[in-house]
Amino acid sequence: MLYIFIVNSIVVTLAVIVHYEFLYILKKFFKKMTDFGRYKIILGVLGSLTAHAVEIWIFALTYYLINVYQSLGHLEGNFDGSLMDCAYFSFTVFSTLGFGDIIPKGDLRYLAGIESLTGLLLIAWTASFLYFEMHQHWEIEEKQS
């Protein structure tokens, strides 16, 4: 039980750090883009999607490694053991969509649960960040008109 707690903690911490760094870099870049207005928001959305994809792949790689070594459980169902199937599973779990065609067994279930919670929080963080940036942009446009 301690082992899965440590693995989960490392993976979640890594995902949060990646997310923070992506948003931090975007914010710094936005400050330099004074003449691009609404294109900053498009860049923010694309950058955020990239951040989420990297985070999902961190979880996918963890599922893959755990499944290969089967030390903490395995995935079963419509699953062939490939990294792509692990990525697919991770995308559905992170987004809390959860089709249910791939099922975690053993302690791996806890990683799937914490990934859902992590995905929910990171998606909310992204929405908050983008809302703040859009709000700032709209205020600037109002002052100019």
SSE order and pairing:
Blueprint: H1 2-32, H2 39-69, E1 74-77, H3 83-94, E2 102-105, H4 108-144
Antiparallel strand pairs: 1-2
Helix pairs in contact: 1-2, 1-4, 2-3, 2-4
Describe the protein.
- The protein has helices at 2-32, 39-69, 83-94, 108-144, and strands at 74-77, 102-105.
- The chain has a two-stranded antiparallel ribbon with strand order 1-2.
- 30% of the residues are buried.
- The mean pLDDT is 92.
- The termini are far apart.
- Helices cover 77% and strands 6% of the residues.
In this structure, how is the largest beta sheet organized? 2 strands, antiparallel
Strand content: 5-15%
The largest sheet has its strands arranged as 1-2
Please give the radius of gyration in angstroms.
18 Å
Cα separation of the termini: 60 Å
Sketch the topology as an H/E string, one letter per element.
HHEHEH
SSE-based structural type? mainly alpha
Poorly predicted segments: none
Report the principal-axis shape.
elongated
Report the helical percentage: over 70%
Which oligomerization state do the chains in this entry correspond to?
Answer: single chain
The number of E-state strands comes to 2
Calculate the mean pLDDT score and round it: 92
Give the number of helices: 4
